[in-house]
Every structure is written in C-alpha cells, then in structure tokens.
## 1
Amino acid sequence: MIEKELTFLEAVKINLDECAEILRLDEETRLAIKTPIRELHVSIPVRMDDRKIKIFKGFRVQHNNARGPTKGGIRFHPDETIDTVRALASLMTWKCALPNLPLGGSKGGVICNTKEMSVGELERLSRGYIRAIANFIGPEIDVPAPDVYTTPQIMAWMMDEYSVIKGKTQFEAITGKPVEIGGSLGRSNSTSLGGAFALREAALEHGINLKTATIAIQGFGNVGFYAAKIIHEMLGCKIVAVSDSKGAIYNKNGLDPIDVNKHKEDTDSVINFSGSENISNRELLELDVDVLIPAAMENVIVEKNADNINAKIVLELANGPTTPAADKILYENGVHVVPDFLANCGGVVVSYLEIVQNSYAYYWNINDVTKYLDDKIKETYKNVLTVSREKELHMRQSAFTISVDRVVKAMKLRGSI
Ligand code: NAD
C-alpha cells in the first residue's frame, strides 16, 4: 500500500515511535519526547510602506531543553505552518544531541513572502517578531538563528531589537549574525561544510572516489550553493545538476557553481544557464549520479519516487526530505542515506561556537572553527555508523537512537520523567 501523503510532523513522529521501539521506552517517555515544552503563537503588526498595518502570524516552538537552552532557526515562508515548526523544533532537539552539544531544540517561523516585501518592511517584521517572543528567548533560554529566507542581516536586526529590550548588547542571544557584530567566522557556510565532511566520510566508507564522483543538488539557496561550491572546490566532485523552485539544469560535463550563482543573481533562477539543459526537479532527483543532495524542502523523496532514486549516496542537507516509507525503500535498494540531522548539523555546531565566543568575548580564527567542525562531524558520523552496524539499523534509526537515548537520560536525571 502506498503511504498517504504524510506531513513532516507525522514523519518525525513515526521515526520517534520506531526509535522508541528499538530503545524499549515506556509510554510516558514516548509521549514526553514527542511533546514540545512550549509553543508561542504571535501576531505581529507591521506598518507597511503604503502606511497600512498588516498583521503577520508567527510561531516559536521550544521542543526540549533537558540538555540545555533550546536552539533553532527562524523561517520566513508563505506556507509556514505550526506543524512544520513543531517538526523542525523536534528535529533540532535530536540534531543538537547527536554531536553532543549542550543544547535543546526549538524552531520559529513567520508566515510571509519576503520576495514581496521591501527592506524596511522586512526589518520592521523581524523586530516585531522579536518583540513578540522576547520574554521567552535569551542566551540561557532559547537562541534563534537563520533558516529558510532569513539572513545574517535579519539576525542583526533581531539581535539589535533584543539588545534594545534588555538595555545591553546581547550578541549571544541570536546566532548567524554578520561577523562584524559577533558572528562566528565560518558560520555562513558551516551547514554545507559540515555536509561536505560527512560526504567525505560516507564516500570513504563506500569506496567512492570523490575526484570522479557526480553530484546532483536540489535547491540552490544558502545551503545548496555553498554545498556545490565546497564539494566542487574542496572534494573535487563534478556538480552535474542543480535546481531551484523554478526548475533544474543539467550538464553531464559539470557546472561551475560560481557561474551558476552569478546567473541566478542576474536572472533570479538557475534555469536557462548557458551550456546546460533545463530539466524538471523530478528528473533531477532521479538522475544516475553518485550523490544526490536534497537541499530545499521537506518530503521530496517519498514512497512514490524512492524506487527511482539512482544515487549511491543521499546526503540530506534539507530538513526532512525523506519520508519513513521512502527511507525503507532506499535502505533495501542499498542507497546510503546520510540523515538530515547528521548531514546538516554543521550549522548548529558553529552556532554553538558562536554562542561560546560571544559569551567569552574571545574570537577564534577560521582554522580553529573548521578543525572543530571537522573533528565533530568525523566523530559523530563514526558513532552513527558504528551503532547502525552493531544494531543492524539504517543510518537514520541509528542517529535517532543515539540522540533520543541522550535526551531521555538527561530528562530522567532532571526528574522530568
Ligand atoms: P534558502 O531559502 O537559502 O534556499 C532554499 C532553496 O530551495 C532556494 O534556492 C529555493 O529556490 C529552492 N527551492 C524551494 N522549493 C523548491 C522546490 N520545490 N524544488 C527545488 N528547489 C526548491 O534556504 P536554505 O537556508 O538553503 O535551507 C535549505 C534547506 O536546508 C531547508 O530544508 C533548511 O531547513 C535546511 N537547513 C538550513 C540550514 C542553514 O544554516 N541555513 C541549516 C540546516 C538545515
């Protein structure tokens, strides 16, 4: 039977139920790991450029703080829903626990279309969102960061607004800031660099020569572009296809990520890039490549198309791109999936370093940051692989098992379960 269209939240809950079975958790604990500790629904009035007030709807979900203050990005997206934010907040709990960061998980979102807003409107919305949630965030409570359609500039406005409210500069309240105001070196491309380190480990494991490997990337935003650039320049791979919301392009001889990015800046899309063939996003997912990198949105590899995935490795830089049913098909077909909260945890690893640097007012050089990230990914990947082999689990089950076990132990020690 084909799985019904699962929501992202349902998919996360199925993964957690599966993990609870593996860990033999009791009913109370199962409920506790699926339930957020706090949810905020806020209305944000913004004076638009035409002088009219528009009310935007925003959310902040703090999922679990047993291991430390919660941490998670903010999305500005027209299709944002509370359920997506709940799913992403939960994923952040497991993403912080997996590389053993002393942080819990949260996520935020505002329903808005940034493409239709002026810079002034965006600034007023960003400040309004922070005013609405200010009493419930902070370095020791919950630390926001950028995500889809939010930028370092937006983080700068948010940090400034929070600092104004508190009456003192609070760099450590928000991460992903520009380096001039407390941002960490290496943060802007850390998700993608962490993904490249994870890919290097996976390729080593599977005997794939990265110098001749072909890569297709869905999504050419912050994460997808840097992934293309780093994997091409640092690992020597050939990027044969990339896409965005308007379509995909393919060139079997390889695309230069810098040139494609320039074309995207000029024309607002990767499509019609000279010397490449326009293809559909579906065709991109099904290309015969060594590595497929979903770097756009959730639920793109589903039961219906999982059998058509021809890549040897799926490196999930997007959050939640593969549904549980698709996961099983990929596993049975011998496709090695590096799950999202392992593949893309580089962002939160460097965000953690940003908080530490802000707290100490002492800043690391780029080599220190890169080495920390490299060591962290290597160690985390090895840990997930070892558990997956020992317990005969696929990589996502293995990663969930490690993270959930750590969070449950912390909850038990603190007496919340
Ligand atoms: P972004 O907004 O910079 O880029 C998103 C890209 O996806 C854009 O190029 C957009 O055109 C494209 N896209 C949207 N819908 C598409 C579709 N249906 N088909 C193909 N392309 C599509 O966002 P980002 O920060 O690069 O985030 C991408 C993914 O990575 C998200 O799932 C996000 O949650 C995840 N992620 C981001 C970070 C981070 O540090 N930014 C960290 C961890 C995970």
## 2
Amino acid sequence: MRQKIVAGNWKMNTSFQEAQALTSELMGMAGDEVRGDVKIIIFPPFPYLYSLKAQLGTNARIEVGAQNCSEHAAGAYTGEVSAGMLKSMGIQNVIIGHSERRQYFSETGPLLAQKIDGALANGLKPIYCCGEPLEEREAATHEELVKTQIEEGLFHLNAEAMKKIVIAYEPVWAIGTGKTATTDQAQEMHLVIRKHLASKFGNETAALVPILYGGSVKADNARELFACADVDGGLVGGASLKSRDFIEIIKSA
Ligand code: PGA
C-alpha cells in the first residue's frame, strides 16, 4: 500500500502571526477530523520552520517541510539554507524542483539531482516536482518533457534510494490558475510517470512511490482526483492557506 499524503505549500505567503494561527487551527481540526493513515505535511516559509515545528510538538499529527534547500552542504553561499541545517532542526521533508523554482530561479535537472542527493544524505524526504508548461501540453510533448524531468532528477539513484522519494506531478498551466487537470489527464500522466519509474527501478519500487497531484486542488475537486488509481494525494498551494479548505482536501484522501 502506498502512503497517502496531502501537503500544503504555503509559498511566500503569511506573516509569522498568520502562520502560527493557521498551524494551530490545523492542529485542532486534524486531530478531530482526519483519519490517521493520511500523512499531512505543511511547507511554511523558511524563517517560520523552527517555531512551527515547536508549536506542533512531539505528538504532532502534522509534519513540517521546507520549500527548497541548497545543493551545497555548507560554506559561503549567502542567503542559502542547506539540507543539513533543516535536519538539525528536526525538519523531515523538502520540496525539490517546484516549477516556480525551475522558472524564476533557473533551477535545472543536474542541479536538482544534487539537491536530491543532499536531502537524502541528511535523511530528509524529498517531494520531487515535475510538470509541463501549457505550450508543451498543446504541442503534445508533455509526456516526453515530464519523463526527462524524472530522468534528470532521479535516474541516478538506486532502487533503495528511489523508495524514499515522493513525486508531485504539477502541470504548470494548472498551478494557481484555477484550471485543474481532469481526472483522465491526471491519471494518464501519473501512470506515465509510474511506468517510467518501473522501466528503470523495477515494478516493485515503482509501485511503492507516492505520486501526488498538484495544480489548483480545491475542496470541491480533490475527491475525484484522489480517487484515481495512481494519484496518491496532493500538493496544495492556494487552498492550503485556509485551514477549513485544507482539512476538507485532506479528508478527501
Ligand atoms: P496551487 O499551487 O494549488 O495554488 O495551484 C500548487 C503548487 O504550486 O504546489
């Protein structure tokens, strides 16, 4: 059985006070309303991680992750945060290769492979993002592009390391646009990704890797998306900033 995961990517949103309030609302609701077998992860901005982790406490139903990490271990890299620093604060998860980082910060496949290695070396669980822009979808080159993204970031791993990875398929045209992939589009791409993993790592490994869907997931479309055979949960942006909406999405998983 693959782990079901619903993750909230807060991006560069919330003041510290808003982040604390959102966390405390989620703690209350998650404890009361959500089944224990769905993993919940929040990805707040870097400066809030330590405090929110402390706020969640040791019995937390909710894990914390970072939205990015450096490819370097330490040194003169002003403004950067390493995987080892995250580990030393008890952070368990990290998003690698979000399309906004690929697009606005020129992150490329080889760089992301280094980040994956740094995260794994520090015991962090990477959520590796892939997904095509609208032009690629319209040109019907999206499958090839996503396969290349998977190869560049992950195909240097061995099967044991691959079992520690979570993948998020996020079509860029669906992120923050209110335009969600249909269930057929999502299932089709998740299966493409899983088959591609199987071709490299074998069926057993491919069957174990959770593949999350991201891109305008909302309370009213989550249930049908999460019901697809190869969709194992979601990476949620905008709707994760409202506790009630996020909890309803988690309950759909
Ligand atoms: P969205 O963002 O839910 O606001 O579309 C998803 C993401 O970028 O992870």
